[in-house]
Specification:
Elements (H helix, E strand, L loop, with lengths): L2 H27 L18 H16 L14 H4 L7 H20 L9 E4 L2 E4 H27 L19
Antiparallel strand pairs: 1-2
Length: 173
């Protein structure tokens, strides 16, 4: 396989993995009642609402003008993303979808050669490849937190979003 084909395959597969991360979190969102979005498991813990808004803010900032401007936009209020909010689930999902749309739009036109280009995040240079992998890692971390929170909050009402553990009759969604 040529380097060009490998790069193209990598971008395609990574975009699919990003879509899977988004879908996994959304399977949790679909199980939440309105108060569940803002529930926390402890005093300093984040809620699903906070995590969803943080991911949305990060994606919007990093992938707006991805190849041409610093990934930490001056209008981003990162600390504010971690402030508890009273936004409704539909308002949070509007931010969520907008952030993911920035990621998908910015990566749609990438070609193999772009992986070696340089982008800046918080004044530090990174290859596009590194920036994409950093985003994948960051997303995975927070999506995992969303899943754990959803499972904890829903308790016995939790519907597995992947293969249920042995002994559970419940079908996956």
């Amino acid at each position: 396989m040529s380097d060009e084909n490998l790069g193209t395959l990598f971008i395609k597969e990574l975009r699919q993995r990003f879509a899977a991360q988004k879908a996994q979190a959304e399977k949790v969102f679909a199980q939440l009642e309105v108060p569940d979005w803002h529930a926390k498991v402890g005093g300093n813990a984040n809620s699903v609402a906070v995590l969803a808004r943080h991911l949305a803010g990060n994606l919007r900032s990093r992938y707006t003008d991805f190849l041409t401007s610093d990934g930490e936009k001056p209008d981003r209020n990162r600390e504010g993303e971690f402030t508890p909010t009273s936004l409704s689930p539909s308002e949070i999902l509007t931010e969520w979808d907008a952030g993911w749309e920035k990621l998908f739009s910015a990566t749609a036109g990438l070609v193999s050669e772009d992986l070696w280009r340089t982008v800046t995040i918080r004044g530090q240079e990174h290859s596009v490849l590194d920036a994409l992998l950093r985003t994948f890692d960051h997303n995975g971390h927070h999506v995992g937190q969303i899943v754990l929170l959803g499972k904890h909050i829903r308790g016995s009402g939790w519907r597995y979003i992947s293969i249920p553990p042995q002994g559970h009759d419940q079908k996956t969604q």
